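Quick note —
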Amino acid sequence: MSGCETIDLTINDGVARIKLNRPDALNALSRPLLEEMISALDRLRDGGEARVLVLSGAGRAFSSGADLSSGSSPAGGVEFDAGAVLERYYNPLMERLFSLPIPVVTGVHGAVVGAGCMLALAGDVIVAQRSTYFLQAFVNVGLVPDAGSMWLLPRLIGRTRALTMMMLGEKVGAAQALEWGMISELVEDGALQARTDQIAAKLAKGPTLSYALIRRGVRAAFEQPLTGALQSEREAQRQAGNSSDFREGVAAFREKRPAVFTGR
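Predicted structure written out below.
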């Protein structure tokens, strides 16, 4: 995407890739980076070119979290309103990421910290290198978890583990994250891009509408009783059942051949 200074966005063969690109700052989440991320997600939502998104980071880390290093930052000042920063930057970003109508694959390595941790865990398929660590660092600077941490993390790993991460502010290694169910896969160092590319290629050829309905349904089910979830599934199945991809899937099944989905 032209004009970006802190992220790289490319779209090829239905696969969109957003790479956080502040390697000298361990991809710390500056306000310009957050703004560029929001714009990129808006383009992916509205453009119709991409059928899957891969999110990654350049350099030695996925993301070290919020950028607190700038001497000109008002952070810590008497009049500083950290909640307003969330409302303007982080909350719109996370809303867009969770509502995106295409699958999200996150490939993470190195440090995955703070709000950067939530960017990673917002993925539908989360792949981490063995040397990766996850850190809820907010208490280490006197803040509380944000960017959806208190909503998502207990749902992924349970209340006790989430509170342990949030209150102790200690690193959780990738192997532990896999055991807890926080990530989908663990790969050896150096194998991350190949594996995320493989997953993305498969998803880019899949039934895109079905993926969108699954993403929406799972998010809604977090807040629904069983009856509401069943009703949501009924409506989603109506939409999926009217799609070209469903017709193609049935035809391929009957003809004993691989389905060729178009995402419609």
